[in-house]
Write a structure and sequence with these properties.
Order of helices and strands: HHEHEHHEEEHHEEHEHE
Structural class: alpha+beta
Oligomer: single chain
Strand content: 25-35%
Number of helices: 9
Helix content: 25-40%
Radius of gyration: 20 Å
Length: 209
């Protein structure tokens, strides 16, 4: 237990240490454990017809960042950071409701804005069909997808990538040598989760948790 403490591992009791010897499967969280936990925005896709796509992209990023500023999720932090790099200000929120495992609903400048995953959109009756091809392409590229809807219309798709830790593959190889099964758990979509798991050799995935 002393050696564990030196390495940042706290053991509640001797019994816990004994039970650890009987473990046969290790379940790892994806973000911050398998990946670096430092997600960055890689894509901002504008849906629908707009005269100035770049201007609309900026508007959507500012909306998303204004809402995510009130969130503590790593993906939200990535969106806020991207807006900061572009020098965008944060808009005041009139209302804010976090919906666990799905995303956020807020009122911004009199507009109802939803930002989150497809489950959030579906629960609010937002049709995502026009964004499905872009969503799938990003997810097959191992990116997490954040959707933005304004007044019940899907307006944009944000792709976020979180690189795998340099130490992950070596650590997983050591666990496999110990005859342990490894599973990955994540709130991400199955396609995104599968892409990350494939890169590190994990075949048991618990997605959309």
């Amino acid at each position: 237990t002393g050696k564990g403490a030196e390495n940042g591992i706290l053991l509640r009791s001797g019994e816990a240490l004994e039970l650890a010897g009987k473990i046969d499967i290790v379940v790892l969280d994806k973000t911050g454990t398998i990946t670096k936990g430092q997600p960055t925005v890689t894509d901002i896709l504008v849906l629908g017809d707009h005269e100035n796509l770049k201007e609309r992209e900026t508007d959507l990023l500012q909306l998303a960042a204004s809402i995510e500023k009130a969130s503590e999720h790593p993906l939200g932090e990535a969106i806020v950071a991207e807006a900061g790099q572009r020098g965008l200000g944060i808009l005041p929120l009139d209302e804010f409701t976090a919906e666990s495992g799905m995303g956020i609903e807020a009122m911004v400048g009199g507009k109802n804005v939803l930002i989150g995953n497809s489950k959030l959109m579906e629960s609010h009756g937002v049709i995502i069909k026009k964004g499905e091809a872009d969503i799938a392409r990003l997810q097959y590229g191992s990116k997490t997808v954040v959707l933005i809807a304004v007044d019940q219309i899907l307006e944009g798709v944000i792709g976020i990538a979180d690189p795998i830790k340099d130490t992950t593959r070596e650590a997983l190889a050591k666990l496999l040598l110990m005859k342990l099964r490894i599973a990955m758990i994540t709130g991400d979509n199955q396609r995104t989760a599968s892409g990350i798991a494939k890169q590190v050799g994990i075949d048991t995935i618990l997605a959309e948790v």
